[in-house]
């Protein structure tokens, strides 16, 4: 067991920083316990780790406790995970001349920071599983694969927690288990191809370099790359273009009218450098356009 205590220089909302890493309420790699602590597992360059994070009080001291071979690595990265490296100074000036609704939401969530895990492949696999399916299906696939192939979490982790398997295991998953997980051949091949290049992906030093490497892989486009870089690099400007709901929600919150991806990018242009941050504030506003038209259908690929 290792422990680290860290007092942020500015208010940090650990829950907001970490919730984007959770893949549904049943995620075997993420848990919030009744005492308010957040537990998550990772496969670090030094090996598996279970990390427990507790904040003594809003804006107070953060206590990180870690178990497993990757404990030291995880605790070294604790401040970055919670957004200590996120520079939002320029965004404040943008808000002064920007949309009033964003100023209101930013005041409501002063501790919002964009954290970084430093782990590309960890962010990539669930992002690929989320491609072109409804969220509950992708989360079921992630949970099934983690429970089937993940390792038990080190230390006194809550029951059922697992550590994501290493790339070589993802490469060996047989076709019938991808089918049982509900992941069709296209997404399975994308993950297998990425696993074969995991070392190169993890070696990327910047978000721009990671974007180039990710989008050179078959099956990975703008949306998937952005979702990965938001989490692995804490990229506050990586916009999830192609998201099924984001463009219409951005348009609705900022103008009262739904829009498409091109319209969303025009609305976000004045906030360049912080466009993902704006998207997070839009989602935190809770405002959504009225539902019209058919919803994206759920497709259970296990039945094909």
TrEMBL record:
GO terms for MF: alkylated DNA binding; DNA-3-methyladenine glycosylase activity; DNA-7-methylguanine glycosylase activity
Keywords, ordered alphabetically: DNA damage, DNA repair
GO cellular component: cytoplasm; protein-DNA complex
Organism field: Thermostaphylospora chromogena
Superkingdom, taxonomy of origin: Bacteria
GO process terms (BP): base-excision repair, AP site formation; DNA alkylation repair
UniProt-listed InterPro entries: Alkylbase_DNA_Glycosylase/TA, DNA_glycosylase
Name used for this protein in its record: 3-methyladenine DNA glycosylase/8-oxoguanine DNA glycosylase
